[in-house]
Specification:
Layout lengths: L3 E5 L2 E5 L4 E4 L15 E3 L21 E10 L1 H4 L2 E6 L5 E6 L2 E6 L6 E4 L7 E10 L23 E6 L2 E3 L9 E9 L2 E12 L5 E10 L5 E11 L2 E11 L13 E9 L2 E10 L4 E4 L3 E4 L2 E3 L1 E6 L12 H14 L3 E4 L6 H10 L2 E5 L14 H14 L5 E8 L8 H17 L4 E7 L14 E5 L11 H12 L5 E6 L19 H17 L3 E6 L5 E8 L2 E5 L13 H10 L5 E3 L6 E2 L3 E8 L3 E6 L2 E7 L4 E8 L3 E10 L5 E10 L18 H4 L24 H5 L2 H11 L17 H4 L11 H9 L5
Parallel strand pairs: 23-24, 23-30, 24-25, 25-26, 26-27, 27-28, 28-29, 29-30, 34-40
Antiparallel strand pairs: 1-2, 2-11, 3-4, 3-5, 5-10, 6-9, 6-11, 7-8, 7-10, 12-14, 13-14, 14-17, 15-16, 15-18, 18-19, 20-21, 21-22, 31-32, 33-35, 35-38, 36-37, 36-39, 39-40
Helix pairs in contact: 2-3, 4-5, 7-8
Amino acid sequence: MSAIEKEMNSMQIIDLNAEWVFTLTDDPTYTSEPVTDGETVTLPHCWNHTDGQGGSQTYYRGQCWYQRQLQVTTEMLDKLLYLEIGAAGNIGKVYVNGQLAGESRCGYSMFRLFLNPWLIPGDNLISIAVDNRQNNDVFPLMADFTFYGGLYRDVKLLVMQDIHFDVEDHSRDGVYLTSRKIGGDAWELEICGRVVNKSPQTHTGTIRVQLRDQNGKIASQSSVEIEIQDTNEFRLINIVRDPVLWDGIEQPYLYTVDVSLIINGQVVDQRTIEHGFRTIEITPDQGLFLNGKPLKLRGVSRHQDYAGMGNAITKTQLEEDMAIIREMGANSIRLAHYQHDDYFYTLCDRQGMLVWAEIPFITIPSSADPDNLNAKEQLERLIKQAYNHCSIFCWGVQNEITIGVENENTYRMVRQLHDMAKELDPSRYTVQANVYSVANGSPLNVLTDLVGYNLYYGWYYGEIEGLGKRLDELHQLKPHVPLILSEYGVDANQQYHSYTPKVKDYTEEYQVKFHPNAIRTLEERAYMLGGYVWNMFDFGSATRNEGGIRGQNLKGLVTIDRKIRKDAYYLYKAYWSQEPFVHIAGRRFKNRHEAQNDILIFTNLRHLAIYKDEILIKKIESANKSEVLREFTLSPGENHIKVEGYNEHGSRYTDAVVLHLVQEREMSYVHVSPEQTNRVTNWFEKFDLSNAPAIELREGYYSIFDPIEELLQNSEARAVFEKFFGKMAEDPRFAPMRGVMSIEKMSKISRLNLPKELLPIINAELNRIKK
């Protein structure tokens, strides 16, 4: 057994990350028999670390096994032993000496199991079956990111006294901190939770709370005596005078709260929790106020994976992500589309990031889970486990859940999740992220406190400038609803470049062309809370193959390996960061075949000097965040371009690039789309759409509004579907949608490009088939 990671009096936390045996083979005998064909791994571990990001192997989804021997002494069995698993994607079943000890169907949440009933002195076999296959009652069912399999966070053993803070209520601490301003300089710090007594006797104990500032000085303390029978809840109130506020990235001040459980003068359990005092108020016309001051959310979205590692990332890589985000000047992060590593929420607390935290209730609801129990369980775990992070200001209850269907059942599910979040945590807001096709007047837009829209004008549909028009229409129709731009962005492969960037050319230049409009649109509209760039980093999306890179979504401002900051990253840094810098865009557009070039410079400095081959050619004094050197003439061969920027103190900041003037266009810079012979756009070309009839519905007959699964169950209706859509329904990626999606709803998916004239033609044929 490995060394003790942490010890608090009678409580121990033991690291169990080492000495696991892993196998891709799914053999039911592994519940009780040793794995025979495995490899030794150290956790965190992910088996899709390459195939889930476009590697040469086939993306593997299945049930795999992890095993480890756990040596337990007789003395340890006198204590209470809990296995803590940071996450198992997406289903984890834990067997101890051949007996099922418990399972988790929440692939992004921490879960704990009480082990004592199954343990014996000596060696114990821990077997964990982890399954990332498609399962129609475990979210996410379908999404544009890789569903990584593995034990991809830490695994620990908790050794506890009979009397302790609850570790089995889905929470992380068993203790919840809530602070409220109650007038003047006075704040109320509420500390509540639950104590569990698994001994046969009733005990009298004390809950002691001490609030310490960053110098270790006690700022407030209180205690309460409780009689502990089996399970007892407690609640204390500390009054704190004039605390230093947690004020976002400007001043992320954190206190430390020690909550101790004392029996007969001995501390038997303790929690040490960082806490920030802050107020957040959100209005529909003036946006968000942090501690009474207006704050525009300059946000980025983040997926948790990393090149070559999948979701099995280290603390060092979490810290690297935060450093990159902070350098760019963001003040908020949408942690999409699921619960993230708890340490990253801690980094957000410490760095002053406002966080949108959410669950993977995404794309389509489950036809196998009509009560939406899995989404509710994931929401409960998210809120209870992340409750004590002051950086979180809202709980996200759905993302684009109407792609497959939007009806009264959808509204019921979202309403229930909102109500549940409010019951678990009345102190925070609820939020949702709607797909663009959700009508401005949809009932969805009154079901949560805040409403986000994922809008990709200028990429999937419309023109870049359509973003502001849509937001204004939303606000005019729903002026009482606070609005957030929850996603926006375009794919960019840093290999591709163009003098005339356009939609779907995947160039860095089009990404740079796209984002200034979004920045201005949000800054100019006081009613907008702000927005979240999609995405901070490129991320794994195993079913994708576009933009010249397979298995990845390329909308990141930084590559998936974090090695390259695309030019658009520096555009945002110029607008958002106070750290002086200068950046010349287009450095990877190295071989230029035109002598006259526009050179783009991003900077937050007012004074610039531009050099070509060490000769000063121009000085600029401007407050612009981007400057364009128009018709900059390149000479044959190498051209050394340098820009020096100066601040008011005379400090110098430099960037330089080398560009080559070549005779012919560099074709490796051009994206060539692969032939796509199975797209819907090809299927409908053979149909005459010139005389499409009006859509009429006949009672008792099939229509384009029926779920596709129902059409497939009737041979005639199936034939109509396959006439127009071929074997699409047999695609495993489409299978999860069949039970909830209709043909009419398919027409709302922009990438399918279904012409509206096709719908009445399909409907007329279905209307001839009796149910």
